[in-house]
Design a protein that fits this description.
Length: 755
């Protein structure tokens, strides 16, 4: 019970004080029921009734609940007062006390019915069975000790009927109380206060019924005084804050709860034993007792059947959850492994089993751009599309993330590639991501094993995984079938990845500088592009086209990128100091994986600070495809870099995207033309107009300069100069060479910075 703050700021224990007051009034009533004790009893009861009426209003509980409770309490009090002052009979054996008490029972029953509507919960069938069992057991007990003696042993039929009504009403209240206890959350103080009051009320009524069988209208002050505690319990429950928490959807108490099992055992076994040992009042009594006991056994059997069905359903549900993915409803990894083992072990008409690993390309982009909720809905749609491609008997599962797997039994190997083509075709139509369509493409790895020959499921899974890597290496949006040469290549790749891990850890990655030229005839160095290099201890020089993808896939790109960035800044700072050229720049390529990391700006700041290089001397090259694929997810990162003072250069411009239109929506400082624009450039080629349009467009958009890469002939250089291309880069002007060997003569030159 909550404590109420006193006016002095302390805490005043209300419940102990109220209990003490009620106890004092009860003792006074026992001593002098017709004098001051009776007055104190009535006043204490009236005070509790006032609390019952006011408490729920303060908690903003539905009026019907507290009005019925208040009316019932008032009616019971009037019945007690009428019995105390010994009012004359109302009609025949029915007294005013009986009439008021019966009315109180009606109001209490309505109140309990309202509470039951408040706490309606799942599991209604089992709760109803349990309540019925308790009601039948209570009815059997009350019939045996009260109703049967009242009806069958007394000659006054009217008085017998009136006495028999009390236990019947007690059974009604008991049934509602038990149902309420089974439905209500375990820790609801108000509920247990009500339960305590109802128990006291029913115990006293049952005791009085037993007494009135032998002595009608007898009044035992010690027994009547207990009614005050029932009032106190009702008042405490109505005033407690938890009364307002008894809302629909309260926690349903499970069938296996020990307290429920104990209540069922007590309410069925005890009345049965009592009915057997208690004296019998003739054949009618025997028939009634036998009927009730038969009903108890019937409902117990029904309850057992319901419990077993519930346990079986719960077990099946638990098994389903253990073997299925909650998002898509597809079988999960454990179910996949079990299915694959069983299919490989059996032999029959289907000679082959294939495993298809399906991985959605660039799915992380969806989560990064639209959020995981959109990603989850997209996964559900992917599962639906894949379900539409598999044949009857094929097994589809989700392994996790955007990875799905199909197990198919085949009569020939070609069926596997047919299934893969069907999956690719199913992804042609766009999917919904948020409010806009999104094209998703799958990469598929296929492995095939023969049934009944001991083919290992682990090997088949590993082979499908290797084939999936091959499909992604070939450009994604396609499939690859595992062949033995792939295993050798994959093993070499794994070894090479571990060697790269060691190389990064030991800082074996170094950089070459390739010059970037400007000026009339492109005779002036304005900077260099830093190119990562790896000299393998056994295999010799490994190209960046090999080890950069390895670094991205293995998570090494972050450390590798930091090393390249630090070396590039350090070497350029050295060259600027030695040559006196403060206008020299260095251009460093940034991987899409690096650009997706939140700490890229921090690493750039650290490299500039440790080298002493100003931010405007650093160019960061990003590919156009990165911006297109990453979309809004890159905007914040790019804006932070620009605020730092670093220049952004759009690399591989013009390869596969509507570049000119896209330049209106992205902010970069420089554009590097892809070598495809330069490769076939001659004095008479038709590429002049395209290049001229690009240069004019970039100038109109405020781009500081355009760099043409891949310049290898003097003719290409002349044409580019004629078109006013600001900068060039290529073998014609110098091969990449180790940055540590690059030196410029220290001389005073009047140079024009291209930035």
């Amino acid at each position: 019970m909550k404590l109420i703050r006193s006016t002095t700021g302390g805490r005043f224990p209300v419940l102990p004080w109220a209990a003490g007051t009620v106890t004092m009034c009860a003792v006074a009533y026992i001593i002098d029921p017709h004098g001051i004790g009776g007055v104190m009893f009535t006043v204490a009861a009236a005070a509790c009734i006032a609390a019952i009426a006011v408490g729920p209003m303060l908690r903003q509980v539905r009026p019907g609940l507290w009005l019925n409770a208040t009316a019932g309490a008032v009616a019971f009090l009037l019945g007690l007062v009428a019995r105390l002052v010994e009012l004359p009979a109302l009609v025949g054996p029915l007294t005013w006390a009986d009439a008021f008490t019966f009315l109180g029972y009606m109001f209490l029953a309505r109140w309990l019915a309202g509470l039951l509507r408040q706490v309606r919960t799942p599991g209604a069938a089992s709760t109803l069975l349990d309540t019925t069992l308790v009601a039948i057991g209570a009815s059997l007990a009350l019939w045996t000790i009260t109703i049967s003696p009242a009806l069958l042993e007394r000659d006054d039929v009217g008085s017998s009927l009136v006495s028999a009504v009390y236990p019947v009403l007690d059974v009604v209240l008991l049934t509602q109380s038990v149902q309420l206890a089974f439905r209500t959350r375990v820790r609801v103080p108000a509920m247990w206060a009500f339960m305590s009051g109802l128990v006291i009320l029913q115990v006293v009524d049952t005791a009085y019924t037993f007494v009135w069988i032998n002595t009608p209208s007898a009044n035992i002050p010690a027994l009547t005084a207990l009614f005050l505690y029932a009032y106190l319990c009702f008042a405490a429950g109505m005033c407690h804050p938890s009364f307002a928490d008894m809302e629909p959807g309260g926690l349903h108490r499970p069938d296996t709860l020990p307290s429920r099992r104990g209540a069922l055992l007590l309410s069925t076994v005890s009345p049965a034993i009592l009915s057997i040992v208690y004296p019998i009042n003739g054949p009618v009594d025997v028939v009634v007792r036998a009927t009730m006991m038969a009903a108890i056994f019937a409902f117990l059997f029904r309850r057992l059947s319901t419990t077993m069905a519930s346990l079986a359903s719960a077990e099946a549900d638990s098994r389903h959850k253990a073997l299925h993915d909650p998002l898509t409803g597809l079988p999960n990894r454990a179910s996949f492994v079990d299915t694959l083992e069983r299919r490989l072990a059996r032999s029959g008409r289907d000679r082959w089993v294939c495993v298809l690993f399906v991985d959605c390309d660039n799915f992380k982009y969806v989560n990064d751009t639209w959020g995981h909720q959109t990603g989850d809905s997209l996964l559900a749609e992917i599962a639906i599309r894949l379900s539409g491609t598999v044949r009857h008997g094929d097994f589809l599962a989700r392994l996790g993330g955007d990875e799905f797997v199909i197990v198919a039994s085949l009569t020939n190997e070609q069926d596997a590639t047919v299934l893969a083509d069907r999956i690719l075709a199913a992804f042609q139509a766009p999917m919904e991501a948020g409010d806009q369509p999104l094209h998703m493409t799958p990469s598929i790895g296929i492995s095939i094993g023969q049934t009944g020959n001991g083919h290992s499921p682990e090997n088949l899974v590993r082979e499908a995984d290797i084939a999936l890597y091959e499909a992604k290496d070939k450009g994604r949006a396609g499939w690859a079938l595992f062949r033995e040469p792939l295993r050798t290549r994959f093993d070499r790749r794994s070894v090479l990845t571990e060697d790269l891990r060691q190389a990064v850890a030991e800082r074996q990655i170094y950089i070459d500088f390739q010059p970037i030229m400007a000026g009339g005839g492109y005779d002036r160095i304005v900077g260099w592009e830093a190119l990562a290099r790896w000299q393998h201890h056994d295999l010799g020089m490994i190209g960046p086209d090999v080890f950069i993808p390895l670094a991205e896939q293995s998570g090494l790109i972050k450390g590798l990128g930091v090393q390249v960035l630090e070396q590039a800044c350090s070497e350029l700072a050295r060259i600027r100091r030695e040559s006196g050229r403060a206008d020299l720049r260095v251009s460093v390529n940034i991987s899409p994986v690096q650009l997706a990391q939140d700490d890229l700006t921090t690493h750039v700041q650290s490299a500039l600070r440790s080298s002493g290089l100003p931010a405007d001397a650093l160019w960061l090259e990003i590919t156009e495809s990165t911006i297109v694929e990453r979309g809004a997810g890159m905007s914040r990162q790019l804006e932070e870099l620009r605020e730092l003072g670093v220049s952004l250069c759009l690399d591989d411009f013009g390869t596969g995207y509507s570049s000119l239109a896209r330049l209106q929506h992205i902010t970069v400082d420089y554009v590097k033309l892809d070598r495809l624009f330069v490769a076939n450039l001659t004095a008479t080629s038709r590429s002049h107009d395209v290049l001229r349009a690009i240069l004019q467009m970039t100038s109109a958009l405020g781009i500081k300069g355009v760099i043409a890469e891949g310049v290898e002939t003097a003719e290409q250089s002349v044409v580019l100069a004629h078109l006013d291309c600001a900068m060039v880069q290529g073998w014609l002007f110098g091969m990449p060479r180790p940055a540590s060997e690059v030196q410029l003569p220290r001389r005073a030159l009047s140079v024009r910075a291209v930035g």
